[in-house]
Specification:
Largest sheet: 7 strands, mixed, barrel
Bound molecules: alpha-methylisocitric acid, iron/sulfur cluster
Number of domains: 3
Number of helices: 22
Helix content: 25-40%
Oligomer: single chain
CATH topology of the largest domain: Aconitase, domain 3
Structural class: alpha/beta
């Protein structure tokens, strides 16, 4: 039987395992990326492994999330990242050079290669035909050291595209349409492969928008073929030599096929507070807009921003709207400036921010109280913008500009003027803000610079055969890692300081949680379905571990978070009977018995102290995962000699 594109790349990178869906496969990783907010932990972990130099084809450290530098913390982190990267053979993309996924697509991504990144939107690379995964920092550290990346072999979904997008209907609307169809849980356990005749109508940045938002479906990753469009993009970036063609075999089998007719799509919008809360833009035309933010790794390419400039040219934004634009990279900003588009943007009254994540991760530009904010980003989780009662909607750049001009949510297809913007034949290439690592000789004596905010990695405990712990928190469905470990300007500077961060754990759901967890000693968290969706931040596992959480029992888990929990030595268990979720109350004292045996059989028994009721929980772990869990996490396991 023929293979899908993803199966071909997996087969050519397979270290161990068999490729049957559901079984574990170990993959050789060609490239890694980190960003600053997760990178400090990843490099601290890499340092504890004692490997002098990375063993990948390319590893690169980006600084894009936390560029504000209010106080010494971020600057110290940046200096740490720069020095640790240089010493260990990692390239360093300086603050201001752009958002990791945008820069990686432009300058480093290669079709047919594997990439893991300590950021959940690493699948953006799938727009170039890479097999790219978001992962926790520890998994990235292991891959940098030459270790394999372990995933559960996913199912294969295909989205079959026909037709061609109408003017003002965009790749973002394609992503939102798929979220409408599948929901934020619909891609769990699957790789989404994009195919069909409509693919040839989409440029690489448009494909990147789509693979970027595959993360919001919970998909393991998303991927496009590598074709003539890919070749032309790489050639325009001066990298034609990186091109290899890639397509699925005609008889490749898929577990599910979804058809989308691009010609029939309309502009769509995700309403607060979930990316799958999707309706047609035209149905919200009476909603007044306070703020519009354009940018993020989803929609900050040159193509996106040239369209934005064309729509703003000669116009002024509505007086009650505040508009921000964050270009995705220095390349994008320079080219906007050189062609005069930047002047059109500035003349409209927009505020141009740094080439960084910025408002997407709550680093400034939080909406006013109760304010309606339209964002071209990929997530609108409660509180993520920094304003808890902010009403964040996700839209395309075209819908964003149309609405910034009228002051109301506006369907851009109602705009009178045609929009004629195309991909450039050549991009302006200047990689001076990407610093190469030191040579092996120079690296030997090079110092790694650590500031006082960089605290040691927290220690986790191995498991005994029985665990008695209190249920310190019960939460509902679709809990995101933004709920578990919020980000934003106030907290992000402390990503390398777990003790301080722990004061904010679950702040959005229950500010009393950290104190209760500390008082409880060993604790358990109970969650609904899709627990831990969203960001790859391993802090959402490390911080609860630091607070004594030993086990999370949920109806189901998001992939990266489940892996992070295992790496942190926290048991991710699932209710055998979901009705037990309803029966449990916060404050209950629970005992898990025969843990070692239970992990092997896949069933554990939990006894409730009050009343003595027992119920069953399940967990399907590989031998390696069981050993990691019993050791109390990946670092303990590696120190004990585990591979
Ligand atoms: C996000 O979009 O939530 C982030 C911030 O990029 C995270 C990484 C992080 O928390 O540092 C992600 O998507 O993984
Ligand atoms: Fe940065 Fe936002 Fe993309 Fe995360 S989703 S990498 S915060 S731009």
């Amino acid at each position: 039987m023929g293979k899908t594109i993803a199966q071909k790349i997996i087969a050519s990178h397979l270290v161990s395992g068999d490729m049957t869906p559901g079984s574990e496969v170990a993959l050789r990783i060609d490239q890694t990326l980190t960003q600053d907010a997760t990178g400090t932990m990843a490099y601290l972990e890499f340092e504890t492994m004692g490997i002098p130099r990375v063993k990948t084809e390319l590893s690169i450290a980006y600084v894009d999330h936390n560029t504000l530098q209010c106080g010494f913390e971020n600057s110290d982190d940046h200096r740490y990242l720069q020095s640790v990267a240089a010493k260990h053979g990692v390239w360093f993309s300086r603050p201001g050079n752009g958002i990791c996924h945008q820069v990686h697509l432009e300058r480093f991504g290669k079709p047919g290669k594997t990439l893991i990144g300590s950021d959940s939107h690493t699948p953006t690379g799938g727009g170039l035909g890479m097999l790219a995964f978001g992962a926790g920092g520890m998994d990235v550290a292991v891959a940098m050291g030459g270790g394999a990346y372990y995933i559960t072999m996913p199912k294969m979904y295909k989205v079959n595209l026909t037709g061609k997008l109408r003017p003002y209907v965009t790749a973002k609307d394609v992503s939102l349409e798929l979220l409408r169809i599948l929901s934020v849980k619909g891609g769990v356990g699957a790789i989404i492969e994009w195919g069909g005749p409509g693919v040839a109508t989409l440029s690489v940045p448009e494909r990147g928008t789509i693979t970027n938002m595959g993360t919001e479906l919970g998909a393991t990753t998303s991927i496009f073929p590598s074709d003539e469009i890919t070749r032309a993009f790489l050639a325009a970036q001066g990298r034609e030599g990186d091109y290899v063609p890639l397509e699925s075999d005609p008889d490749a089998a898929y577990d599910r096929i979804i058809d989308i007719d691009l010609s029939a799509l309309e502009p769509l919008i995700a309403c607060p507070h979930s990316p799958d809360n999707v309706v047609k833009v035209s149905t919200l035309k009476d909603v007044k807009v306070d703020q519009v933010c354009i940018g993020s790794c989803t929609n900050s390419s040159l193509l996106d921003l040239r369209k934005v400039a064309a729509m703003l040219k000669g116009k002024t934004i509505h007086p009650s709207v505040s508009l921000s634009i964050s270009p995705g990279s220095r390349q994008v900003l320079t080219m906007l400036s050189d062609c005069g588009d930047l002047s059109d943007i500035l003349a409209s009254g927009a505020r141009v921010l740094e080439c960084a994540c910025g408002p997407c991760i709550g680093m400034g530009f939080s909406p006013n109280s109760g304010g309606v904010s339209l964002r071209t980003f990929n997530r609108n989780f409660l509180g993520r913008s920094g304003t808890k009662d902010g009403q964040v909607y996700l839209v395309s750049p075209e819908t964003a500009v149309a609405s910034a001009l009228t002051g109301f949510i506006t369907d851009p297809t109602t705009m009178a003027e045609p929009l004629n913007v195309s991909m450039p034949e050549k991009f302006l290439v200047n990689d001076s803000a990407v610093l190469p690592p030191l040579s092996e000789d120079q690296a030997k004596d090079a110092p790694v610079l650590r500031g006082p905010n960089i605290k040691p990695f927290p220690k986790s405990k191995p498991f005994a055969d029985t665990l008695k712990a209190s249920l310190v928190l019960k939460v509902g469905d679709n809990i995101t890692t933004d709920h578990i470990m919020p980000a934003g300007a106030r907290i992000l500077p402390y990503r390398s300081n777990i003790p301080y961060l722990s004061n904010f754990c679950f702040e959005v759901c229950d500010p009393g949680f950290p104190e209760r967890a500390r008082a409880a000693g060993d604790g358990i968290v109970v969650g609904g379905s899709n627990y831990g969706q969203g960001s790859s931040r391993e802090h959402a596992a490390l911080v609860p571990m630091y607070l004594g959480i030993r086990c999370v029992i949920a109806k189901s888990f998001a992939r990266i978070h489940a892996a992070n929990l295992i790496n942190a030595g926290i048991l991710p268990l699932t209710f055998a009977d979901p009705a037990d979720y309803d029966r449990l109350e916060q404050g209950a004292v629970l005992t898990l018995s025969d843990i070692r045996q239970g992990l092997e059989t896949g069933f554990l028994t939990v006894t409730e102290e009050a009343g003595g009721r027992t119920f069953r929980v399940t967990g399907s772990f590989t031998r390696r995962q069981r050993a990691i869990l019993m050791a109390g996490g990946l670092l303990n396991y590696t120190k004990e000699g585990g591979q």
